[in-house]
Design a protein that fits this description.
Blueprint (H helix, E strand, L loop, with lengths): L2 H27 L6 H33 L8 H27 L5 H34 L2 H19 L3 H16 L20
Helix pairs in contact: 1-2, 1-4, 1-6, 2-3, 2-5, 2-6, 3-4
């Protein structure tokens, strides 16, 4: 399997949680209480699966290899992706701060959460589209078969050594429980497709 196919599979799981965040924002805007437990689960998913696992593979492995192949960080696609990753982290911090304040009794934070959540969802959806339809195609064309294989093996090492081999299973489960809790359509099955945080199937 190409490394970019692994990353695409992870995108499908991330999109499922984006749909859940959007639903939480809708419910809160309609005057319902913020589902603090679901919000914590979604934020934990983003920080661990989407950022520490998925974005780390891109930032530490995929993007540097693309840059070695001649893609400019300053003027090319990897620099744009890195900037958007940091924008996402700022919005996740805003969501987390809103949940903390709301849990502490600050009712106004119920308005802050959906604002940050909707901004994050919009950012990540267009970010995923850029990667799925542009960046990954560039990488596939640039890498030799040996480089593809080495990158896939490096993705595996990230999961085993930095993240933990059970991370994929755990967070696909989190994503599936969130859609059940919020009544959102499932994007990816519990099997997760080949990939997730590595090429392992859950």
């Amino acid at each position: 399997m190409r490394p970019t196919a692994i990353l695409r599979d992870e995108h499908r799981i991330i999109e499922q949680v984006l749909n859940c965040l959007e639903r939480m924002a809708e419910l809160t805007e309609q005057g319902q209480s913020l589902d603090v437990e679901a919000a914590h689960q979604a934020i934990d998913f983003i920080r661990t699966f989407a950022d520490h696992c998925h974005h780390a593979k891109e930032e530490d492995l995929l993007f540097p290899l693309m840059e070695q192949k001649g893609f400019s960080r300053a003027q090319g696609p990897t620099g744009v992706m890195l900037y958007e990753h940091e924008q996402g982290r700022q919005l996740v911090r805003a969501m987390s701060d809103a949940v903390t304040k709301y849990s502490g009794g600050a009712a106004h934070a119920a308005r802050e959460f959906p604002t940050a959540a909707r901004a994050y969802v919009a950012l990540l959806r267009q970010h995923i589209q850029k990667e799925d339809h542009c960046l990954f195609a560039m990488a596939d064309q640039a890498f030799t078969p040996d480089e593809q294989q080495a990158l896939e093996q490096a993705f595996d090492r990230v999961e085993r050594e930095k993240i933990g081999s059970d991370t994929h299973d755990k967070y696909v489960g989190v994503a599936n429980r969130l859609v059940e809790r919020l009544g959102v359509a499932k994007v990816v099955s519990a099997a997760g497709g080949a990939g997730g945080c590595s090429h392992h199937e859950s």
